[in-house]
Amino acid sequence: MKLGLRARVAVAFAVLSLMVGGTVSLSTYAFASWYLVNQRDSAALTRAALDSRAADAALAAGIPPSQALVSIPSVGTSQPMLRVDGTWYTAGVTVPPDALPADLLTQAQNGGATQRTTVGGDPYYVVAIPVTGGVYVEVFPMRDLDQILVWGGWTLVALTLIAGIFGAVIGATAVGRLLRPVRRLGVAAQRIAGGELGTRIELTGDRDLDPIADSFNDMAGAVQARIARERRFSGNVSHELRSPITAALGTAELLEARIERLPEREASLVGVLAQQVRRMSQMLLDLLEISRIGSDDPPQWENADIAALCREVVEMRGLDVAMVTGDEPIARTDARRFERIIGNLVDNAQNHGTGLVRVSIDANDTSFRIKVDDAGPGVDEAVRERLFEPFARGNAAHRTQGAGLGLAIALEQSHVLGGNLWVESSPEGGARFVAELPITEEAS
After folding, report:
1. Residue 114, domain member (yes or no)
2. Please, which contacts does 71-80 make with residues 24 or more away whose CB atoms are closer than 8 Å?
3. 76-99: per-residue pLDDT in tens?
4. CA separation (Å) from 343 to 65, 310, 406, 407?
5. What is the CATH number of the domain that holds 88?
6. Cα-Cα-Cα-Cα dihedral of 301, 303, 306, 308, to 10°?
7. Exposure of 85 in the CB half-sphere (CA atoms within 13 A)
8. Are residues 307 and 379 in the same domain?
9. Tens digits of per-residue pLDDT, 396-438?
10. Model pTM?
């Protein structure tokens, strides 16, 4: 799964922080380890040299080796030893003489030697210096220094991980602030796509982002103005055509009323004329309605019995009200717009779906769905995308019935009521149109 931009930037900051923190920590540990070990070795060598001089002076004065060791001042936890005439003398038993490296004593005869060794799992630093009649050996424990280095190393590892976490947080926060204006653009674009054409982005005074917001607002204003012009044009054309179409419809109906008196040929022409004029009149009414939706005709909100409204729509079309099944929610809606939605869906099922099968209602606490099933052949997947466009038809066999505006009007009315409308396959084998609307008011 591809990560989002914010996650990718956070990961990049985390990796960068880990690399920088790791480099600094590694360098710090290497330098601190080198410095502390060298300081400890230098201090141990200086201490052993001073102690060997004291032991050498005591031996030169004829003091027995055991007493010469006693004369050495006790500082720290080091263990002094003397080897005189092949015999070992020691002030402690932490490190036995036989545990010392054999080559160390050999090298000590040539002016002194130092070596690191491990006894019983503990590290030691051993210094061997030649003295009168033998060798002076002093053993310095290094366990405390190793523990300090281990704890220091783990501390640096923890700090590196913390730096990585802080880097991720800083990266996520920074990109979040950078993406905030982009999200505002996205939200505004979604609202405009949802029909809120008056949406605009507020300027923040940022000289880099405000030009983008200005351009978006100009684009939104141009889209709103163009749609308003198209609606006015459609409304004006429909209004101007209404009077002559009404006159033509009246004349056609008058002739149709006297069709029995006309010859067969003229009667047939009058019948076709009356049918086409009625269709054109209905088309004008639909155009006027679709041009008014969402403009100067706000919804009239009221509490309504959804099931009762559905039964009323079905009954007005001479169908059996038993077709309405399911829940009976009470919703705050515009009854006139709601009846228009359901009426268009029922008409579509009757005219293009070879008959209505069922109107079912499913409700929950926040919304309800009206499912209108027909007995037709269904709607192809390729047609569903454009089925709700004005003048679109799903079945070429029914091109003489309606102007293709009913579903477009139903969709627009659903959006005004805060809902949506779509088509899917029906369990009955035909098409199922689903209108989902909120229980409470959600005016757009």
Report:
1. yes
2. 75/47, 76/47, 76/140, 77/140, 77/141, 78/44, 78/47, 78/48, 78/138, 78/139, 78/140, 78/141, 79/138, 79/139, 80/51, 80/55, 80/136, 80/137, 80/138
3. 678 888 888 888 888 776 788 888
4. 119, 8, 9, 10
5. 3.30.450.20
6. -120
7. 3
8. yes
9. 444 445 556 788 888 888 888 889 999 998 887 889 999 999 9
10. 0.50
